[in-house]
Amino acid sequence: MTNNKMTKDGGTRSDSVFQYFEALQRLVEGRPSRVPIGTAITLNAVALEAGKSAGSIKKQRPVYGELIKEVMRLAAEQKLRAQPDMTCMVRQMQATAQGIPLEIYCFTRTTAWADYERIQGDIFDYLLAVMPEFGLSLYQQPSGMDFRAGWTGK
Q1: Which pLDDT score, from 0 to 100, does residue 154 have?
Q2: Rounded to an integer, what is the distance from CA 32 to the centroid of its chain?
Q3: pTM above the 0.90 mark?
Q4: pLDDT at residue 2, rounded to an integer
Q5: Phi, psi (5° rounding) for residue 124?
Q6: Mode of pairing for the β-strands spanning 102-108 and 12-14
Q7: Fewer beta carbons within 10 Å, N or C terminal of the chain?
Q8: Among 87, 76, 67, 79, which residue's Cα sits nearest to residue 13?
Q9: Residue 149 has what pLDDT?
Q10: In angstroms, rounded to a whole number, what is the distance separating the alpha carbons of residues 73 and 89?
Q11: In 43-112, alpha helices (H)
């Protein structure tokens, strides 16, 4: 029989998943006990901090869904906070049939257009690069033109 822990929203998590969330919290607070301070937040870092093996958080297991979403959000926040002279916030929006949208707010001190575009590009390059690590993919709802191109092969 597994022991369950209460969550902030009144739900429960199994002991093993709870250990991963505790490890994630230690990483966020900068007080890890098993991995070096300053380690980037990743699924493997969370697993190792929880005393488990790298790769133990399986993307295909539904029990880890909430954990994976939270790790992705916090990893994005960590990366964005590393940018100098920038204030950022990353939040998950209400889930839809197409997925769970992320809302990203970033404010920079620069007013130089080229610098702003570079910063924006770096943020999205990073997010697009790490999505597969979390078992996530980019989604854009197709338009009528997409369907027309599919039917005609153009």
Answers
A1: 60
A2: 19
A3: no
A4: 41
A5: -70, -35
A6: unpaired
A7: N
A8: 67
A9: 66
A10: 10
A11: 43-49, 65-81
Instruction: Supply the pLDDT for residue 1.
Output: 36
* pLDDT for 106: 82
User: Would the CA dihedral through 24, 25, 26, 27 be positive or negative?
Assistant: positive
> Hey, what are 44's tokens?
């493997």
Residue type at position 20:
Y
Query: How many Cβ atoms sit within 10 Å of the Cβ of residue 123?
Result: 18
Cα–Cα separations (whole angstroms), residue 137 to 129, 132, 140: 10, 6, 10
What is the structure's pLDDT at 43?
Answer: 93
The rounded Cα 128 to chain-centroid distance in angstroms is 11
Q: Compute CA distances 112 → 54, 80, 124, 132, whole Å.
A: 42, 19, 19, 32
3-class SS of residue 64: helix
End-to-end CA distance of the chain: 57
Return the SS3 of 71. Answer: helix
The tens digit of pLDDT for each residue in 112-142 reads: 889 888 888 888 888 888 888 777 778 777 7
Where the chain has pLDDT below 70, the residues are 1-13, 145-154
Please report which helix (H) or strand (E) contains residue 29, including its range.
none
